Amino acid sequence: MQKSIALIEFSKIAVAIKCADEMTKAADIDLLQTKFICPGKYSVLIGGKISAVKSSLNTGLNLAEGEKAVIEKLLIPKVSEEVLEMLKYKKIDKDKVKSLGILEYNNIASGIIAADTAVKAAEVHLVMLKLGMTTGGKAVVIFTGDNQACQHGINACESSVNDKYLISKSFISSPSQKLIDSIF
Amino acid sequence: MQKSIALIEFSKIAVAIKCADEMTKAADIDLLQTKFICPGKYSVLIGGKISAVKSSLNTGLNLAEGEKAVIEKLLIPKVSEEVLEMLKYKKIDKDKVKSLGILEYNNIASGIIAADTAVKAAEVHLVMLKLGMTTGGKAVVIFTGDNQACQHGINACESSVNDKYLISKSFISSPSQKLIDSIF
Amino acid sequence: MQKSIALIEFSKIAVAIKCADEMTKAADIDLLQTKFICPGKYSVLIGGKISAVKSSLNTGLNLAEGEKAVIEKLLIPKVSEEVLEMLKYKKIDKDKVKSLGILEYNNIASGIIAADTAVKAAEVHLVMLKLGMTTGGKAVVIFTGDNQACQHGINACESSVNDKYLISKSFISSPSQKLIDSIF
To answer: Does A175 contact C40 at a Cβ distance shorter than 8 Å?
Structure first.
């Protein structure tokens, strides 16, 4: 059975940690990541069976609602394995970089949704998933594949992720070795 | 004799470093920490005998005043040993975590005052003292103890620290092991 | 022949990486650095022969213009060796610190220009060149030399760098050992 994930981005850190605790108590989920995010936000990422994840997410949202502490949230029922690996900071293989699709969002939930959307929609692989830190709270998703796949991946993200969160996107056909050596 | 500490948070970095130098020259104090803080602030923390610390603090404040470079300041005459240890990034013992009190402020001076207040007022121990970095300039204080002590600690902070700086607070009774493993 | 450098600070990361790729393809330059900068900016630094650097810079600027993604740019035809070394995070020798000149700008291009200006104008050496990270996107330049040289360096920067970008500046005559040990 495939894993589901959910994430809440909080604007208030003390509330976020309290919610994370309640979320672990509400259902049998894994607390995959709790993280400080620029500038002053905090994210809580959980994973597990869909019913448990939903229940845990709702517990967190209900608790945070009264505190006006939620910036954004996501629920991905059957998340791709590749997204889960990137969330654990998988080291990428520079030799496998072909063309690139790049998407930049102003919150991290959108970045995770885009990453999952792209790998499910097209023959692309994730090579970067920056979520908040060193980006002022923005998400940057980079995937690789042949030209057509990258463009297909970008299009799929544009259809699936709310475009009010998109800051910029780009497609790089056959990136130079200098670029690859510098950005990865 | 117990140590005193003082801190100035500056909005201008060149002014801050100049002040730090004058503060070390004005009295026999220890320059405990000089630090870049998100987003573009700089903090100078000194320690020593109360008379020296006061004199050094005043020197820094006088110099910075003309430059409109001071965001916040603090002076704690007899600071608790535990706060001093946390300022040096003490590793915490996860096995000793009981319930939690969490306070979040929009400046780091308030976070240090809260930490000192809590450990003096209640049977609690500091387990996190985040000051500015990775928090967008906010301070996060987390202490542990039994339920009553944590609530007592939170109340003491609310009485002692200017509440216009408080962003959020929370009390966690018996945090889950999952939470403890994730946040510490 | 002396090396030239150019830098573009971008507000949009996906655009920035696309531009970096085109810049490496437009002329025979070295991609010296690509970097995430607080809060959510991205810088691309190139080096090489002046004609190649100019051509590459123009390619990047033209591409970014339509996207309104450029915050600031610079072109230094014959950059000082010392600036190039600092850009690679040269470790400084604390024993050689004399007096200090400190300049703080609200963008990193201005910081690099100031660093280059100071070492060319006066008998000073760079001891810190903070560019964006941990400074909320600000640049901090610190150089050392005797009193007269430091003041001369500060004056030269004030003449050469657009003063609307200057946040603060300071001159420290014979900094205390405590300051030197703390800030470096």
So the answer is: no
Ranges of each domain in chain A: 4-76, 81-183
Q: Do C135 and B20 touch (CB under 8 A)?
A: no
CB B37 within 8 A of CB C37: no
Q: Is the peptide bond before C39 cis (omega within 30 degrees of 0)?
A: yes
Q: Per the CB < 8 Å rule, is B178 touching A31?
A: yes
> What average pLDDT does the segment B99-104 reach?
96
Average pLDDT over residues A75-88: 92
Q: In which residue are the tokens 């448990």 written?
A: A52
> How many angstroms separate the CA atoms of B79 and A47, rounded?
42
Q: Is the pLDDT of residue A1 over 70?
A: no
In this structure, the number of other CB atoms found within 10 A of the CB of residue B120 comes to 17
Residues of chain A neighbouring B176 (CB-CB closer than 8 A): 21, 24-25
pLDDT tens track for A6-28: 999 999 999 999 999 999 999 99
Chain A residues whose beta carbon lies within 8 Å of the beta carbon of residue B136:
38-41
Q: Is the pLDDT of residue B1 over 70?
A: no
Contact C134 B38 (CB under 8 A): yes
Complex ipTM value: 0.85
Q: What is the pLDDT of residue B172?
A: 95
Q: C-alpha distances in angstroms, B121 versus B153, C117, C166, C176?
A: 6, 54, 45, 37
Chain C residue with minimum CA distance to B35: C183
Chain B nearest-CA residue for C101: B14
Which chain C residues are within 8 Å of A181, Cβ to Cβ? 31
Same CATH topology for C4-76 and C81-183? yes
Which of C136, C167, C170 is opposite residue B17, by nearest beta carbon? C170
Q: Say if residue C89's pLDDT is above 80.
A: no
Whole-angstrom distance, CA of residue A15 vs CA of residue A71: 12
- Give the domain C81-183 fold: Alpha-Beta Plaits (3.30.70)
- Per DSSP bridges, beta strands A166-172 and A139-145 are unpaired
Say yes or no for a CB contact (<8 Å) between A137 and C40. yes
CATH number of C4-76: 3.30.70.1710
